[in-house]
Sequence to fold (250 residues):
Amino acid sequence: MRLQGKVAIVTGAASGFGLGIAELFLAEGANVVFADVNGPAAEAQAARADAGRAIATATDVTKRDDVERMIASATDAFGGVDILVNNAGVTHKNQSLMTVTEDEFDRIYAVNVKSIYLTTLAVVPMMEKRGGGSIIVTASTAGIRPRPGLTWYNGSKGAAITLTKSMAAELAPKNIRVNAINPVIGETGMLEQFMGLSDTPENRAKFVAGIPLGRMSKPVDIANAALFFADPASAFITGVAMEVDGGRCI
Fold:
């Protein structure tokens, strides 16, 4: 049990990468808060996974009050927070940068960037009380090797990576490590938005062709990377943005 006795919060935990991370953390002994804007779905996943060591919160990560309630729920249920996974994210449909609406732009930066600000303000004091902690950000290969069609999303993930590195440097004296994961396009509910196409074998093949290992990422791939950054075995690693991309960024 690599996370025995640890307390973890995973945002966007009702599905996709977040669900994979939350489930693996539970399997490795952690107490886990399944946080998601879709409260009923988070409740269902937490109940299915482990009613004894999992709770759920309905959390809009763009709202300070929701974020503070999420941290308080973890503290009330489990006594504190050791691990925070900033996984919640949104995108716009793959399209011209000229046709993304202002509302879409604002939503992307609120969920993908502002949420990191809000969760950090809320969780750092809790982690200090525990003697340190691990903050993990789900960023994207889009932040380091951007491609046309997702320009505004790409920028939000570039910001997430820069924040990760700056936070790591500033929070290191508090023994709080900050690392990011850069997934390649994955088999999640947002797949068609990223492709800008219907999810067919033929359309998948167009994207898989650029991935040397020959497949898209899966929740278990991202969960394993998150487990590494949460594990005390990575205690001397901070400020890293690790590509989990099957070689896409080579």
User: Anything to note?
Assistant: The mean pLDDT is 96.
